[in-house]
Amino acid sequence: MNIATVPRNLYQNWQFAIEINGFDVALFQKSSLPKTEFEEVTFAPAGSLFDQKVAGRMKFDDITLEKGILADGSEDAARQWLQQVGAATLGIGGTPEMYLRELDIVQYDRTGVETRRWHLHGAWIKALEYDDLEGGNTNNTIEKLTLSYQYWS
Fold first, then answer.
1. pLDDT for res 83
2. By CB neighbour count within 10 A (0-12 exposed, 13-18 middle, 19+ buried), where does 49 fall?
3. Rounded to whole angstroms, how far apart are CA atoms 51 and 5?
4. Does residue 94 lie within any of the structural domains?
5. What is the predicted pLDDT for the residue at 1?
6. Which of 2, 16, 87, 98 would be a feasible disulfide site paired with 93, CB 3.0-4.6 Å?
7. Position 13 pLDDT exceeds 80
8. Do residues 148 and 124 touch, judged by C-beta distance below 8 A?
9. Is residue 3 part of a domain?
10. Looking at the predicted structure, is the pLDDT value of residue 8 above 80?
């Protein structure tokens, strides 16, 4: 059988969940995925005609999550998390262990079976922003979280 004629399934971007302690998973509508990259280290050994390159430290880029906000104000997890980080960094309450969280990004197939999972270790909220307000606009207000983390597995 020719492999080019066999239909193959690809991952779908629309079936996912974000699992963070304290958050309602149903409110998340968008997420970036972890990005890993190595720093480039260059050096010029004696007698070499050109620089040598090797892999340096591993880096993990921030991720961005977007979620809806309940109109009754009952879901306030992002603001509370931001306040925990602020209190610890200002020295008025807590240590990093109190605001660092484990986070999972889970992808599902069409039948709802988990197919992939990214586990982010030591995540913390780096930025919190909201959509602009606009008269006559009927869109829901979206909360955008930028998260930094130590590494993922």
1. 94
2. exposed
3. 47
4. yes
5. 54
6. 87
7. no
8. yes
9. no
10. no
